Amino acid sequence: MGAADHSRDPVAHRWDRMARGAQVRRYDDRHHLQHWLAIDDRDDGFEGVEAHLVKCRAGVGLDEGTVRSRLADRLSNTCPTCSSL
User: Fold this and answer.
1) 73 inside domain
2) 3-state DSSP call for residue 54?
């Protein structure tokens, strides 16, 4: 698990102007992730990798049952051994 933290990113000065999906993809590239999911209330920049995004509502997040259900589905499809976590 991790967060798309920009503190060590060489382009940190542009981070706030980047689409959220671009931020997540930079994190993925830097850490060479094999299996990943993003839980976010924004979906900008996730074109082509929509299956990796579990979109939630701002201020609600995982408190919404449908989001938890989508997360469980995506976990079982992305990383079958993770779904038991």
Assistant:
1) yes
2) strand
